[in-house]
Amino acid sequence: MKKIIVFLFVFVLFIGCRQNKIIHPLTVTKKGHYLLKHDQPFFWMGDTAWELFHRLNREEAEKYILTRKNQGFNVFQAVVLPELDAFSLPNAYGDFPLIDGNISQPTITEGKDPNNAEQYDYFDHVEWIIQKAFAKRMMAGVLPCWGEYVTPRKRERTISTLEQGYEYGWFLGDRLKHLNDNIIWILGGDRLPDEAENGIEIWRAMAEGITDAVNGEKEFNQKANYKATFMTYHCYTTSAKWFHEDDWIDMHTWGSYHEKRNNERAFTTASNDWNLDNPKPTLNSEPTYENLPINYDWAEAKNGYFDEFDVRQQAYWSVFSGTCGHTYGAHPVWQMSKKDLVHEALAPTTKDTWEQGLNYPGGNQMKFLIKLMLSRPFTEGIPAQDILVENVYDPVGQLVATQGENYAMIYIPTGKEVRIDLEKLNGIQSVAWWYHPGTGESVHIGEFENIGIKKFDAPGDTQRGNDWVLVIDNKDSRFPKPGKVLR
Asked: Do β-strands 183-188 and 231-234 pair in parallel, antiparallel, or remain unpaired?
């Protein structure tokens, strides 16, 4: 009898230890600014695919994942309870996520065979897509629901109590816990968490529910072990405003969004988050979208459309100001528009299908950003405006610099001349390059001693869209040319 009791005690202890030791493969560097995946530097290169789970079938979803993976993306961001027509338009297989829009009644069926329509439900399809992404080594940024369902501006609340938030979080966490290592949980979605009473507390409850489910627990007591999950919160304002001290949030996200060209929030918000006490990684998770009407003019696009330079400018401004990566967006892709399926309000200015949007030039050029950052030890990088001499604010051509131990990079949006204080660089001699964000081309400039102030004049004319990155390396570092990934 004693042996049986000892065995049971050891077994229970073993199971408990296993549960308590669930640790997500994404972690944060010691100084708090960058991400690691399995202890290796991870540069987030994301894509907004908000309607992916809702609007694409399996074949289409697989095409989306393969295309974006081949373009260098390693994260997609998609919503389980989506923004557009979640309860009036079924998914590609005729299924809705909830029965009559009731958050307490998910539409679930026995089995999950994709070839059996009676088995394959809405959440099976979500799972199938995440599994396909996992097979291609692409992470899923999963939003449990759009912010409108917790803090609404246009409808009645779908989730109005802490208990509902916890239960829905637990349901989704339990449903997808076997894929948790490939999921970045993104709470929110456009809406500020304090736009409705107890909104902040509901999101916290949802985070706890998800994490409890992953840990194999279920007790709403504000004591979850959040090492098991990786989480953030998405809206216009940085999540640091509300959740910086919360245990559940691992990084901050925000968006420079779509109201204007040359949006300085791409670098000011990144810089502000960088300088927080006890910082967390930060990310521009919804910047200007390529081919989206400027300032949300869905009907006429009187202000024109954002172009490939706009998306490059926002990306490099953000990354060089201290973000842990970047998320790109294309107008037809986020909504997964089809010839026969475009939301009524968006139809007048949605020019292309999601498949056409996958090949927009700006989206194809994001691979040059990730290649550039991976060609240097990017987790050493710190915002370094002090190496720039006479950097007068310029709404279009604002210069932004980042500096590592043995390198510096300066983004020049308009091809203008820059002056660098070489004595703020490490090493006796430097080697310099021009790197083109639109083509990935590297042009060797030359070598020089790090004495005094040196002028660099970018190739081409000084004009909007003639953007370049000046890369200056410590000669002794022997880095490869910019864009050639370090091994």
From this structure: parallel
Give me the residues paired with residue 252 across strands. Answer: 282
User: Closest by alpha carbon to 141, among 186, 80, 180, 175?
Assistant: 186
pTM, rounded to two decimals: 0.94
The residue ranges of DSSP E strands in 118-210, in sequence order, are 139-145, 183-188
CATH class of the domain whose range is 26-374: alpha beta
The per-residue DSSP string of 93-130 comes to: TS--SBGGG-TT-B---S---TT-TTT--HHHHHHHHH
List the chain domain ranges: 26-374, 380-477
For 472, other C-beta atoms within 10 Å of its C-beta total: 26
- The band of 11, judged by pLDDT with boundaries at 50, 70 and 90, is very low
For the record, the structure tokens of 67 come out as 């295309």
At residue 253, φ and ψ (nearest 5 deg) are -130, 160
pLDDT value of position 5 = 42
Measuring CA to CA, how many Å separate 415 from each of 308, 312, 318, 437? Answer: 16, 14, 18, 12
Beta bridge partners of 400: 411
Please tell me what DSSP assigns to residue 330: B
Residues 12-27: tens digit of each pLDDT: 433 444 445 789 999 9
Map residue 38 onto helix, strand or coil: coil
- CATH code of domain 380-477: 2.60.40
Q: What is the secondary structure of 288-305 as a DSSP string? A: PPBTPBGGG-TTT-TT-B
| CB of 249 closer than 8 Å to CB of 281 | no
